[in-house]
User: What shape does this take?
Amino acid sequence: MTFRYLILLIFISLIIAKSVLAGPTSSNYELKNYGFGAGGSSNSASLNYMMNAIVGEQSATISSTNYNVGGGLIYTQQANLTQAPTFSNPSSTYDRLKFIINNGSNPTDATFAIAITDDSWATVQYIQSDFTPGSSLGTEDWLTYTGWGGASGKYVTGLTQDTTYKIHVKARHGNFTETEWSADATADTSVPSLTFGISSDTVTFDPLTSGNSWTDSSKSTVLTTSTNAYNGYTVYGHETAALTNVYSQTIADYASPNSAPTTWTGTGFGYTTSDSSLAGGSADRFTSSGPNYAGFTTSAPGDPVADHSDKVDESTISNEQFTISYRVTASENHSAGAYTNTLLYVVVPVY
Amino acid sequence: MKIKFIILPFIIFITSLITRPAWAASELSESIPQTLRVSPLIIPIELSPGKTIKQTITLENLTANPIPIQATIEGFDASDEEGGYSFESTEAASPLITWSQVSPSDFIIDAQSKRQVELTIQTPSVIPPGGYYALAFFTALNRIDKARSPVVIPKIGVLMLGSLGIEEDLTADQKAQIVTFKSDKFIYEKSPINLILRTKNSSMNWFTVKPFLSINRIFPKKLFDEEIPEKVILPGKIRRWNHTFDTNLSPNIYKANMAVSIGKGEFVTKTIYFVVFPAKNGAILLISVIVLGYLFMKRRNISKALKVLLKG
Assistant: This one.
């Protein structure tokens, strides 16, 4: 009899213990583990902790404006949803924008995809493995954090000027682990522009006499350029005619060409440039052992006299200056009078 | 009475000499700087037969003097593989120049002011697909009518890149080809390594290409990746890149893979190989190995010879 009561007592105890130790339950579900670790903030915006539980509005839905509950075991195995990427235009570029994705504490072999739009997601494109927008998202367009430039980021190119773009990112780490898209980041492309200035619209030489050996080499024009054109710019120089007086008599152009300027000898009208990295021949042909001089051509657009050929992305070209220095040496037999012509400096973007 | 009629005109004459017009005085002595800002500088245009396209261009005078401007449309072609211009203002070379005009074409921009002009492109109802390009020039006119000195004039070109028709059915290989990808040597003693890339646009439209260089060792593999600055290639033209990298490379056989992107994730690729081998040190090492190898192979004969030499 005592033994029977003992068995009954043990049985009842087990039932009660199970009830005491069990988590919250409903008809079909039981919350097994609802413990929390130390730390974090007391609000719902912790970066380091999450609770697998019901969150939401009083309507008892499982999603709200900013939060969502993913159901099932698969959701718990997903890669970490990343925060919104950094998206900016640091150099006022017109066809590219810089992005830096957030790793979201994912493993190093996790991969990420980036979507981009210029019409608030009415149409969607994806940043391809060549960092240009494309209409499809292929396997090759999922790159690791390092592949997307890591902490330095990358530029997405091939964009339209003067346009607002949005991007967002999602991550995955193996099959069935793809997250939802992150929050958006927005940036604007600029308009390509160029500012070009000349220091003066005339060149006034000193009177050429026997006192100065009929020579003046002290006059110059400073060319000043600012632009955000990606491949830079080139300034070409040419003249409408040789120096000519009212009687159509001329002072000939200096004989050496732009491609092979030389140390000055003899008479003529010529120029040199301070650009030591100039296209159209040996880069420092005017400055190496210089100054070396060339004569102006009369064929438009002329010869390169100044340029900037390095790419412009991290910083724009601002007030870059090159000096075109002139020299005229006449012979004592030249007729007296005023000799004039017109010099044109043509600046175009490098394409 | 007669004296009055003589003195008065004389006074007027002297006065006119003293108070000559300011512009005349500036004509002889004053030169002024000129600075213009133009935007947009590059205008990509999607052409459509029979369609009129309008684009606003803004010019800004950044100086303290008004500047008279003349606007013109001029054609061009690529003059070389370095992005140089060859101006060809004929309809055959550049049909876009006959479809385009800037209005107004002659105007004055007041000091420290902006002025907007309208670029209008009226395409014919029937035009073949392809690329069309031109330059809209804005030239500061010579303000001095009777100059006694050389005059300097700035001229800014706005690049117009038009295209008609998108060749969706062409593969990347059909649109672009890597004509040349090579190193300037096959065997290097050390860096720098100089690479030459030439890419041709075989399509009818212009596009931007972006080269990606990947250097791998044969044993072990991956070394580094590098992006090379992108360039626009006009239809039928070739662009050239000279690329140098100074990364110190150990003696090995290297594979250089060039993947040229034409946009939208499309690539054309080519692979070359080169060797890094320190020739001088390597030659000494090789000779030493050969000599030691020979001595090892003949060690018995050498040993006998030494015994005879030492013991007699």
Notes: Chain A touches chain B through 61 residues (CB under 8 Å).
